[in-house]
Amino acid sequence: MTSTGWWFQAKHGLDTRGPFPRRRRRTLGDAVAGRRVLITGASSGIGRSAAIDLADAGAVVLLVARREPELQELVDAVTGRGGKAFAYPCDLNDAEASDTTIGQILDEHGGVDILVNNAGRSIRRDLAQSYDRAHDFERTMQLNYFAAVRLMLAVLPGMRERHFGQVINVLSAANLFGGPGYSAYVASKAALDEVSTSFQAETLDENITFTSVYMPLVRTAMIAPNAQYLEAAALTPEQAGRVLCDAIVDRPRRIGPTFGRLQQLVDVINPERADTARHRRFKSGI
Ligand SMILES: NC(=O)c1ccc[n+]([C@@H]2O[C@H](COP(=O)([O-])OP(=O)(O)OC[C@H]3O[C@@H](n4cnc5c(N)ncnc54)[C@H](OP(=O)(O)O)[C@@H]3O)[C@@H](O)[C@H]2O)c1
Predict the structure, then answer these.
(1) 52 closest CA partner among 31, 28, 83
(2) Which of 75, 113, 120, 198 has the smallest number of CB atoms closer than 10 Å to its CB?
(3) Banded model confidence at residue 6, pLDDT cuts 50, 70, 90
């Protein structure tokens, strides 16, 4: 897992690869020029920022989200800068629409080299408020897990045939240190992480990489309704977009904040202590 100190970097505007980044053998342009990069959730926030950087570096960006005007505006912005972008408005919760859209993308572009599963739904709700809300767990699984898996199943045959591909899953730092109050959301992202671990094992010798990005807080529309995050340290969408670009250049298996990695270690060695830390965090309202 790549070592990062993202909060520190967000504050000081440093390289998102951390204070001691590995020396690179290639640039983003080397990694993506002419590559077909499918980005879900491209109409705003992290996906939109990543799309601009990737197109600037020479990728052909294939943009999926529900809001057509926002996607079209992004296509215009990218083409205005000399890049190549195509909009595919689609509600990924609709399995039939999703299959039609990915079929159209494969027909029109001949394949997808890099899939960024970024579209996501977050729900903040304590257990005490969730007893009659089983549908929260279904809705988060629908978009964060089933929709992403559907896309993987559609693009992986081509990637395996060509012996090249990368799937980037935008998960949450809460997948590393726990997310009390976000149970449905964190569980759906964990499912995506797990299925990718199995797929990675099956395709390791085929030049296909699955990258789990454990994203920390990012100041986007997603966290806007939550007043407790108003003053919290957070990446800008541009910084988070660059994290996804770094993931494409370096192709790590996992990338996430150092603090979360340490917390995971504590969880393995002393789970009761990790539970206590999570419980305290929950009680203090963080
Ligand atoms: N912001 C954070 O603090 C944070 C932290 C950790 C992880 N993340 C993850 O980062 C990813 C991007 O989120 P963001 O922060 O950039 O928030 P955002 O600006 O709200 O972006 C969410 C994107 O998902 C798309 N989307 C939502 N429902 C969809 C659907 N049914 N079909 C197709 N697209 C859909 C939205 O587009 P439309 O509305 O146009 O469909 C939008 O482009 C998410 O997976 C989120 O879980 C965010």
Answers:
(1) 83
(2) 198
(3) low
Q: Is the dihedral of CA 262, 266, 271, 276 positive or negative?
A: negative
Distance (angstroms) between ligand 1 centre and the Cα of 114 equals 18
Q: Domains in the chain: how many in total?
A: 1
- Provide the 3-class DSSP secondary structure of residue 187: helix
Using a pLDDT cut of 90, give the percent of the chain over it: 83
pLDDT digit string (tens) for 87-105?
999 999 999 999 999 999 9
Cα(273) to centroid(ligand 1), Å = 32
Q: Is residue 225 in contact with ligand 1, taking CB distance under 6 Å?
A: no
Asked if the structure places residue 9 within a domain, the reply is yes
> Can you give the pLDDT at residue 3?
41
**Verdict on whether the full-model pTM lies above 0.90:** yes
Distance 120 CA to ligand 1 centre (A): 4
User: CATH no. for residue 120?
Assistant: 3.40.50.720
Under 8 Å between Cβ of 259 and 34:
no
Three-state DSSP class for residue 183: helix
Which residue CA neighbors atom 33 of ligand 1 most closely? 65
Which atom, in ligand 1's list, is nearest to the CA of 70? 40
Angstrom distance (rounded) from CA 156 to CA 168: 13
- Protein residue closest via CA to atom 34 of ligand 1: 65
Catalytic residues: 185
